[in-house]
């Protein structure tokens, strides 16, 4: 699915995107943005929670600027969603490894 990532751009299923996005098993949400920019809140992930996935891979940006507070991870775990957090380049690799094994989503910050 993810064939390329570089600062500010990603190629998913042959389509190029230049904004943050969420990849779900059945669709992609482009132009995704958080309520607090570089802080990931549970409210930012309602589509993921509703999608019945087992894993969410969070890409925190090229330099890891997006933070995932413990309460967000705990809320995901309460919904039985495992959370993998890494800089976006590594997150893309993790997503590629997992998405064929189990229902997996990705929430990817493409820049900083």
Summarize the structure.
It is built from three helices and eight strands, in the order βββββαβαβαβ. The protein is α/β, with parallel strands linked by helices and 112 residues long. Strand 2 and strand 3 form a beta hairpin.
How would you describe this structure to a colleague?
The structure is a single chain. This protein is an alpha/beta fold and 112 residues long. The protein has one domain (2-108): Hypothetical Protein Mth938, Chain: A (3-Layer(aba) Sandwich). The chain contains three helices and eight strands. The protein has helices spanning 46-50, 70-78, 88-98; strands at 2-6, 9-12, 15-17, 21-23, 28-29, 55-59, 82-86, 104-108. The strands form two sheets. Strands 5-4-8-6-7 form a five-stranded mixed β-sheet, with helices on both faces. Strand 1 and strand 2 (9-12) form a beta hairpin. The radius of gyration is 12 Å and the shape is globular. The two termini are 22 Å apart.
Q: Assess the beta-strand content as a share of residues.
A: 25-35%
Overall shape = globular
Structural class: alpha/beta
* Helix coverage percent: 10-25%
**Radius of gyration computed on alpha carbons:** 12 Å
Uncertain segments are none
Task: Present the secondary structure layout.
Blueprint: E1 2-6, E2 9-12, E3 15-17, E4 21-23, E5 28-29, H1 46-50, E6 55-59, H2 70-78, E7 82-86, H3 88-98, E8 104-108
């Amino acid at each position: 699915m993810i064939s390329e990532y570089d600062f500010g751009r990603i190629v998913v299923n042959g389509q190029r995107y230049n904004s943050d996005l969420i990849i779900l098993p059945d669709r992609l949400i482009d132009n995704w943005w958080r309520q607090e920019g570089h802080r990931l809140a549970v409210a930012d992930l309602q589509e993921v929670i509703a999608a019945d996935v087992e894993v969410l891979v969070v890409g925190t940006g090229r330099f890891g600027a997006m933070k995932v507070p413990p309460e967000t991870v705990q809320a995901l775990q309460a919904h039985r969603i495992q959370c993998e957090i890494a800089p976006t380049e590594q997150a893309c690799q993790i997503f590629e490894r997992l998405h064929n094994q189990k229902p997996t989503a990705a929430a990817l910050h493409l820049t900083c």
